[in-house]
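Running this now, will post back.
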Amino acid sequence: MIGLLDQPTNGKIIIDGTNTTTLNDDQISSFRNNKLGFIFQFSNLLTDLTVLENVLLPIQISGSNDINEKNAKDLLKSVGLESQIHKRANKISGGQAQRVAIARGLINKPSIVLADEPTGNLDSVTSQTIVDLMKSMAKNLNQTFIVVTHDREHFGDVDKVITIKDGKAFEGDQPSQMEITA
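Update: finished.
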């Protein structure tokens, strides 16, 4: 719902002061591209594009004439990939691809970055690197990340934990804690 891929049957979703439930399909697409960043379990990079081209893709999709390669290169540097910018996406490792996905998710300076199992396809060492990178980016860029994971232990101390069990949401790691109701 937060990713605007589905509409609620009742209630509303307000992101950055906008009631998204009143938007039409074109407005939802534009809002999603400009206000939300996405990081998936599989990086979903376009293999025929370079690392830099993959990061710039959301800007190009938005139709913006302000394609800021410097910003993309700065993001790639911040995720440790400045030496990989001209490589094709199919020539980098899984951990590198996930770091490209993080940079791509941040390129439009979104209000929220949604990360769906961002470490699910990685070994434990690379997973921890990705978690540490997301936490660093959240702090350094004052960026909100909402992460869905089955690997809670990788994330350590975070600002807020919501556990969903049997269709109910609970604040904290344990379902025995306070239930969240809308």
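The CA atoms of residues 43 and 84 lie 16 Å apart. More later if anyone needs it.
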